[in-house]
């Protein structure tokens, strides 16, 4: 590690503060992510449901779709790294 920000990140847009709670939830859910022969596995609905029950949390439709979209992006990037 150089301690310097890569050019791609330096020019990236700022992360919207309105989504910071969704990102934190996504990162928590990702700690339980499984790996298979093809690399990372998608977050499944059972994991999301378990998280909601354990944390006594209810997600809005927007939060759920955002979590799934983040997961799709995460998987695409992760699978490229496996190749």
Short description:
By secondary structure, the chain is mainly alpha-helical. It has helices at residues 7-10, 20-30, 45-55, 61-82, and strands at residues 35-36, 39-40. It has a domain at 43-83.
Main attributes of the structure:
two-stranded antiparallel ribbon, single chain, mainly alpha
**N-to-C span:** 23 Å
The H/E string reads HHEEHH
Walk across the major sheet and give the strand order. 1-2
Backbone structural class: mainly alpha
| Percentage of residues in DSSP E strands | under 5%
- Unreliable parts: none
Task: Report the helical percentage.
Answer: 55-70%
Shape from CA axes?
Answer: globular
Mean of residue pLDDT values: 85
Number of H- or I-type helical stretches:
4
Radius of gyration: 15 Å
For the largest beta-sheet, the strand count, sense and barrel status come to: 2 strands, antiparallel
Report the count of strand segments: 2
């Amino acid at each position: 590690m150089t301690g310097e920000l890569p050019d791609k990140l330096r020019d990236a847009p700022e992360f919207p503060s309105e989504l910071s709670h969704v990102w934190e939830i996504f990162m928590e859910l990702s700690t339980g992510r499984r790996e298979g022969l093809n690399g990372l596995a998608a977050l499944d609905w059972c994991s999301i449901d378990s998280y909601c029950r354990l944390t006594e949390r209810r997600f809005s439709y927007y939060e759920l779709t955002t979590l799934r979209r983040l997961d799709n992006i995460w998987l695409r990037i992760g699978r490229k790294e496996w190749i």
